Amino acid sequence: YASGHSRPQRDSQNDLTLVTSSFNDNVIFVSFRRALSTGDPKDRDIDVSGKSQFIVWAIGDTSGTYSALTQHFTQGAQSVNFAEGSSTTAHIDSTKKDVHGVLMVLSWGILIPIGIAVAKYGRVSSHWFQIHRFVQILAVTVATVGIFVGISIPDSHFRHKQHGAIGIVVLVVGILQLIIAILRPHPDTPNRSKWY
After folding, report:
1. What is the pLDDT of the chain when averaged over all its residues?
2. DSSP result, the chain
3. Burial of 122 (0-12, 13-18, 19+ CB in 10 A)
């Protein structure tokens, strides 16, 4: 099984039962069975209520030994309805994932560094602070949209992995920094020294 974008690990609890297998013309055919609910936390239950489920498959070579899996050269997905015994080829839409990635790179990888650079090196202009403030607000706004796009991805990291939790914490810190900047007294006032 694979947990994210890491090298797949062998599941220590094998829940598959081999039914038949054959090797013909350099093609391996395998048929197996599995319980609908295995009790293994690393397995998903198979829904037979009539709702379709995605099964993702991949084909790839092994490098020397059976245990060394390599990158897949062919992959795909099937939408399977176990109650009806039917399946169709499924298209996995990565548009939301791509939009989420682009928005986060734009926000944290481009806009935030530009805003920091303006605050550090742009003070030669009388408008440096307005530019800095605009770019930072834009960056946090773009990141907020990116978070909502990420949350809307089915089976996203936001529901299952640390990626979403870390992303939300970083966004909250970014929003808090904007709030502090808004509430902070002007530089010439006496209470300014109590703020950073």
Report:
1. 81
2. ---SSS-----SS--EEEEEEEEETTEEEEEEEE-S----TTSPPPP-SS--EEEEEEE--BSSSTT-B---SEEEEEEEETTTTEEEEE----HHHHHHHHHHIIIIIIIHHHHHHHHHH-TTSTTHHHHHHHHHHHHHHHHHHHHHHHHTSTT-HHHHSHHHHHHHHHHHHHHHHHHHHHHSPPTTSGGGGG--
3. middle
Whole-number Å distance between alpha carbons of 131 and 114? 10
Type of residue numbered 165: A
Query: Where do we find the tokens 């809307």?
Result: 152
Answering whether pTM is above 0.90, one says: no
Q: State how far the Cα of 163 lies from the Cα of 68, in Å rounded to an integer.
A: 27
Give helix 128-151 / helix 112-121 axis angle, nearest 10°.
160
